[in-house]
């Protein structure tokens, strides 16, 4: 029986408008840029993947432009002509030839999984071991920076039954101002919602010591990456003394990072991101490390569009427990889509398709309209 080969790989940069600016500690996003990957196989099946960064080089080591260039020049040539159904061999070939590049590799692995799922008539979740749920609770990020506006937005989401978990992006302003903003929102929402914060490494340890205490004392449920990923000893100290759980995010740039963080006791929660681990299968290895160490899990996002979001979701629905839910709301930030049927959100959850592959079809006309020339 002859092998089914990878015939071509195309990486397309797509710029999509968003409903509002999205403010992070290090950058304010005015729109979202995706790298859509189309992997075509000799049996006529096409697999879709996505590689998306938050803020490009302001956030990490890969940008949309570098992702496309490295796929076109280095990674795609390694895969073309290889067995499309042997995902282990394909990803091992990439890992041997190219260090890092986890965002690009994640998109390629997602495309391979999508193609294989379509080939076998199975959802990607079944290729990853089998789902244990059909939906994922999804948090919404309140990132306008305006307290009254954020409260109104949260109230609307509760009324629509779309979100009851809210994350606040802080760290760009003076600490006391950020704390005042967060506490006011928690008091307005009360027990109707869970409120968390993401500092994106915006504080030093001296600021974080007091701020974490204030946040925990005022009912904030979770504090994400308050200090630099480089300050490992500081992360350990904060994790030991903070009244609210500390979650590692930027600290996890590889599966190996996850092992080291768990060994040091640097966080009690891990944010799982397929882009930072190198794909849906890779992120499940990080999850296994966390589970073995008694560390809770949260399904993170790089604010991917529909393709990347569902690639994450198919991995996350296989996990035994996601104590802190997910934040797979990326498609909800977009005012335009490039798929024929966008992901479905209802009753506070993202519904994960049971159709073959990721469960998505590209809208060729819209893709052409928003693709960067």
Sum up the structure in keywords:
globular, 13 strands, TIM Barrel, 13 helices, three-stranded antiparallel beta sheet, 2 domains, alpha/beta, Enolase-like, domain 1
3D architecture notes:
The chain has two domains: 6-121, 2-Layer Sandwich (Enolase-like, domain 1); 127-351, TIM Barrel, CATH 3.20.20. The protein is built from 13 helices and 13 strands. It has helices at residues 64-79, 87-97, 102-120, 124-127, 147-159, 175-189, 205-217, 232-241, 255-264, 274-277, 280-293, 306-316, 364-370; strands spanning 6-23, 28-41, 46-52, 135-137, 140-142, 165-169, 194-198, 222-224, 246-248, 269-272, 296-299, 344-346, 349-351. The protein has a seven-stranded parallel beta sheet. Strands 1-2-3 form a three-stranded antiparallel beta sheet. It has a three-stranded antiparallel beta sheet with strand order 4-13-12, with no helix packed on it. A hairpin with a 4-residue loop joins strand 1 (6-23) and strand 2. It is globular.
| Rg over C-alpha atoms, rounded to the nearest angstrom | 20 Å
Series of H and E elements: EEEHHHHEEHEHEHEHEHEHHEHEEH
The amount of beta strand, in percent, is: 15-25%
CATH topology of the largest domain: TIM Barrel
């Amino acid at each position: 029986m002859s092998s089914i080969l990878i015939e071509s790989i195309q990486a397309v940069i797509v710029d999509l408008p968003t409903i509002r600016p999205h403010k992070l500690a290090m950058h304010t996003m005015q729109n979202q840029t995706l790298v859509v990957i189309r992997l075509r196989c000799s049996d006529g099946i096409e697999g879709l993947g996505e590689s998306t960064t938050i803020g490009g080089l302001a956030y990490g080591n890969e940008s949309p432009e570098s992702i496309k260039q490295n796929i076109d020049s280095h990674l795609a040539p390694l895969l073309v002509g290889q067995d499309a159904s042997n995902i282990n061999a394909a990803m091992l070939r990439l890992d041997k030839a190219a260090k890092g590049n986890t965002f690009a590799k994640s998109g390629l692995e997602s495309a391979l999984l999508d193609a294989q799922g379509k080939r076998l008539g199975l959802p990607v979740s079944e290729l990853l071991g089998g789902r244990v749920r059909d939906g994922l609770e999804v948090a919404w990020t309140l990132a306008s920076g305006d307290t009254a506006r954020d409260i109104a937005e949260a109230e609307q989401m509760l009324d629509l039954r779309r979100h009851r978990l809210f994350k606040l992006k802080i760290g760009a302003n003076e600490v006391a101002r950020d704390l005042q903003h967060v506490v006011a929102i928690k008091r307005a929402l009360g027990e109707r919602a869970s409120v968390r914060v993401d500092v994106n490494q915006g504080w030093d340890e001296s600021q974080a010591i007091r701020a974490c205490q204030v946040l925990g004392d005022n009912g904030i449920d979770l504090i994400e990456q308050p200090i630099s990923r480089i300050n490992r000893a500081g992360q350990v100290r904060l994790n030991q003394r903070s009244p609210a759980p500390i979650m590692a995010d930027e600290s996890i740039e590889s599966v190996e990072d996850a092992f080291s963080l768990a060994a040091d006791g640097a966080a009690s929660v891990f944010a799982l991101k397929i882009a930072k681990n190198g794909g849906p299968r890779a992120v499940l290895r990080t999850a296994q490390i966390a589970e073995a160490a008694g560390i809770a899990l949260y399904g993170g996002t790089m604010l991917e569009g529909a393709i990347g979001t569902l690639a994450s979701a198919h991995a996350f629905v296989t996990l035994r427990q996601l104590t802190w839910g997910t934040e797979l709301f990326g498609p909800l930030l977009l005012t335009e889509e490039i798929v024929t049927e966008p992901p479905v959100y209802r009753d506070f959850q993202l519904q994960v398709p049971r159709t073959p592959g990721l469960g998505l079809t590209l809208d060729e006309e819209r893709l052409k309209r928003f693709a960067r020339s």
